[in-house]
Amino acid sequence: MTVTVKDVAKKAGVATSTVSRVINDHPSISDATKKRVMKVMEELGYVPNIAAQNLGKRKSNAIGVILPPLDSKERMGNPFFLEIIEAINEEALTHNLTTAVATATNYEKLLDNVKKMHSQRQVDGFVLIYSDKDDPVIAYLCEKNIPFSLIGQPYRQEDNIVYVDNDNQLLGKHATDFLIENGHQEILFITNTIHENIFFERYFGYQKSMMMNGLPHHQSLNLIKPEDYEAFGDMLAEKKYTAAVVIDDMFAVRVIQLVQMYGYKVPEDFSVVSFNNSIIATMVHPYLTSMDISVQELGKLGLRQLVKSLGDEEASSLRMVIPHKLIRRETVIDLNQV
């Protein structure tokens, strides 16, 4: 037999409205009454209907995690997304929140998903885990004043948006510095995305390092279309590039495969440094030298900042920067020792 609010009220000697107020921790109910009612609830084994409570409060106790459009198998398989979702979910549980993921293959469908999640009150706010210069989703969230936090650096409204990020420009600089310290001078920056902020920031860091060391920096090598891959082989044959900074681990694996396909060895002929220090870094040979960006901290702090906004608390800071470190493995050769 199901225990109801009426059963609790009858045994506790109070009105059903009082039981509801106790469940919602209403300040008008005395501590003594709360203790008495909660004791009866425990004795009867009454479990409050959380969904009904949230409906009354117009809250869902859930947050949405928005991924960028997953428009290729590479993006769908990128372990960064799974790692950061897991970190957000773990932190959400400590706040008694559940998570729902919004994703699609393009921005139009993604925006539709976000709109439905918000209008149907499936979630109370969002954590965005990407930053794209032409993103309609972030524009919609800002326009409708929907609570959200961003993992990444916004393109606009930096003074109004709460965001958690690494210093990606410094990441790019440190990765390039490491190659230069190991005797490399002809260094490329290779990417498969040119819209997201991490590309601009990491590429700027690469340029800064090269200029500060008196070395010529090169236009970023954008391997996006099939013909780009063919051009890469020609570039390797024409000029003796000895190393590359690659946008992330997942794509670095593809770059290493290409280099080997064109008859070169990694790291003997061509060294590689990438970013994220994901599980991919130690699943292939040679093991990837990669910049650890503390994905767990990014996810957890992104969620905490959103929770503060939902609770009408001010975020600790509009911008929080997560430290990084280089994990040296097998994809960089020291030319000073050759």
UniProtKB/TrEMBL annotation:
<dbReference type="Pfam" id="PF00356">
    <property type="entry name" value="LacI"/>
</dbReference>
<dbReference type="InterPro" id="IPR046335">
    <property type="entry name" value="LacI/GalR-like_sensor"/>
</dbReference>
<dbReference type="GO" id="GO:0000976">
    <property type="term" value="F:transcription cis-regulatory region binding"/>
</dbReference>
<dbReference type="GO" id="GO:0003700">
    <property type="term" value="F:DNA-binding transcription factor activity"/>
</dbReference>
<dbReference type="Pfam" id="PF13377">
    <property type="entry name" value="Peripla_BP_3"/>
</dbReference>
<protein>
    <submittedName>
        <fullName>LacI family transcriptional regulator</fullName>
    </submittedName>
</protein>
<dbReference type="InterPro" id="IPR010982">
    <property type="entry name" value="Lambda_DNA-bd_dom_sf"/>
</dbReference>
<dbReference type="InterPro" id="IPR028082">
    <property type="entry name" value="Peripla_BP_I"/>
</dbReference>
<dbReference type="InterPro" id="IPR000843">
    <property type="entry name" value="HTH_LacI"/>
</dbReference>
